[in-house]
Design a protein that fits this description.
Chain lengths: 395, 395
């Protein structure tokens, strides 16, 4: 039992212990690794005698591997339950309000999947009306593509509305995107990489993936629809991708494992295996403070272990700090759709918000916040924190 | 006039001076920056008193900017013309045969374009027979997508044939790619990055791009054709991308500037500007030592400055070490096509090689080597070295 005095419904108790990178400022020095406990961050370099936590990113720690991740988590749990450690630990706790959170890891490659059947079906209906909503390959492999790593930003970073080309009557027009959107997604960061030529089986998912976080894959739908054939999304997505600052360790999500939806047809053997599990994460999307969607991650057709197995089946290597995201999380219900494109049905059915405002796509000044929780072992829930961002007008 | 005793037709005389990263091994220590002179590499850390050249990549030097690139090039030129420096410089020359060449820079993001009209037209005819060969957007913007940075390898690295899903009669099949291909491309590396939200005008191309090199964007055509709709190429390309070890400074290519092909329709203003120039690079592709193609880079529809302007027009930032490639370089003639897909017309017209062998796609053991030269100021030519790789059987 912890000596921490947290409210019983805290999403950041000892069952969670997500890692991040914080900066206390002043005499307290530069960026280093912390663990979120309640509304504080525990300065790991101060309580554990290991320079890996004095690094400005999680990469060095993530590269140490699963046995070490377990050992450090057990050690932190000890510190939070051993009354004799209390005084020392309390000296190393900083209130969240007094620190600045940074990008938690140095990003290598970023792959974005398209793993929600509800999302892909809705988008197929909107973009290819009259045709089959899902492409013939969709149920055989998790569709994915590479995103831009250099424009991954931490939650809170403002997002400037991108300019670009849109389809026009006779020639394309150019200007600020008129169909700016969010996409509520879940991200998975590689801790231990894999060498070139060696695929990672789905069963080894937990040996490679360090943890889980939230992603907002901002998307300019008008730029996307004009540029995307034949080589896929490019400038419609590359202007910014926001991530939440806390990485929830995979170990904390063991109680959240659920059976994923049945897959029919049966996927090829390399996509099967014991690591093939779903996760019962409950996402929530707020627009200017008002809930507009509650996407259920448990409904995702392809699982994170399958995504990793697919991403490497061609022999592609992975590195510490590579991450992949699930693609927009959308459930079967209307209020479970993970982007405005679906929520407003391409603008045909604008979304009415509780405060009386109406949205088909994002307006300047709009703030989008994605949060999530998952079941914890003690019957309570753990939290992911949030990924938030406000839209600035095109510069 | 240089004191170097090089053959008059050397491609690596004082008009070139490309940068790379080499390792001499033994007592001579680890990776550091060198300049190729004839068939030797000049150890820059030994002759210029600057720790930036003792780094294991070009990134730190590239980040110093154009004025510094010019100054260092001028200094090296001085050393190679000043007879008094000869003895010292000769002590710092290592024969190429005695060093190992490494990836010349740490790769940030990798974007691959699709900028050859001949290539895009041929591919359109092959993949969408009966339809318009070019998509409606093609002449309005340089189509591009993000590739995988973590699998960029230096010339000489063997390439293992990837496994993956291919389209089947009723269900996809799985196994080693049966349509493995090369793509002869030209790459451009960012020296000085640009901040988020600030597009780089075409006219500022030479302030950001440090230099030019050769790229082989290995492609598995069967994997590609099955996975590519709707989000573009992914595993068909992500298993390996090979790059040549020498980065030819943009300054050395001033004499290679040519007027690019006319663009009709006139592109949007952000794609115009004084930096919009073509480069007269003559590529050559050899398969097992036999020339199979001579792609002319001067025929590219979109220029490198336009690619950079497009890539950043949405506000995407760039970083030192980001690079972008042109896409397959194909000229109008049959023997100027930059990939086997075009050379064998999708396998319908297998390529006959001088040694009597026949190829539609690459076989295990095949070696592909791409070289290039460009006009130099003195009426001679400068070389890019080569990017080469041999196909290993699927593991």
């Amino acid at each position: 039992v912890t000596w921490l005095e947290l409210p019983p419904d805290s999403l950041f108790g000892p069952a969670n212990l997500p890692y991040g990178v914080f900066e206390a400022g002043g005499r307290d020095g530069g960026r280093r690794v912390g663990v979120r406990v309640g509304d504080s961050v525990l300065d790991l370099a101060a309580v554990l005698d290991d320079p890996v936590f004095a690094e400005p990113s999680l990469n060095a720690f993530m590269a140490q591997g699963r046995a070490r991740w377990r050992a450090v988590r057990a050690r932190i749990t000890d510190l939070l339950t051993d009354g004799r450690a209390r005084k020392n630990v309390e000296l190393a706790l900083r209130p969240l309000s007094a620190v600045r959170l940074h990008l938690p890891f140095e990003v290598g490659d970023y792959v974005d999947f398209y793993a929600s059947e509800n999302h892909a079906t809705n988008v197929g209906r909107l973009f290819r009306p009259g045709g089959e909503p899902l492409t013939p390959n969709w149920k055989h492999l998790p569709i994915g593509y590479h995103g831009r790593s250099g424009t991954v930003v931490v939650s809170g970073t403002p997002v400037t509305r991108p300019r670009g080309q849109r389809r026009g009557e006779t020639a394309p027009t150019f200007g600020p995107s008129q169909r700016l959107d969010f996409e509520a997604e879940v991200g998975f960061v590689i801790g231990v990489g894999s060498p070139l030529g060696v695929p990672v089986p789905a069963s080894e998912f937990a040996d490679h993936v360090f943890g889980v976080f939230l992603v907002n894959d901002w998307s300019a739908r008008d730029i996307q629809s004009w540029e995307t054939v034949p080589l896929g999304p490019f400038l419609a997505k590359s202007f910014a991708t926001s991530v939440s600052p806390w990485i929830v360790p995979l170990e904390a999500l063991a109680p959240a494992q659920v059976r994923p939806p049945p897959q029919d047809p049966q996927p090829l053997p390399y996509l099967a295996g014991p690591g093939h599990t779903g996760f019962d994460l409950a996402l929530e999307v707020r627009l200017n403070g008002q809930v507009v969607s509650r996407p259920p991650f448990a409904t995702m057709y392809w699982t994170p272990a399958q995504m990793l197995a697919h991403m490497t089946v061609n022999g592609a290597s992975t590195r510490t700090g590579d991450f992949y995201a699930s693609g927009t999380v959308s459930g079967p219900d209307r209020d479970q759709r993970g982007c405005l494109l679906e929520l407003s049905w391409g603008g045909a059915e604008p979304l009415k918000l509780p405060d009386g405002s109406v949205r088909s796509f994002l307006e300047d000044g709009d703030e989008v916040t994605i949060t999530a929780t998952a079941p914890a072992a003690d019957g309570g829930r753990i939290g992911f924190g949030e990924v938030t961002g406000r839209i600035l007008p095109a510069g």
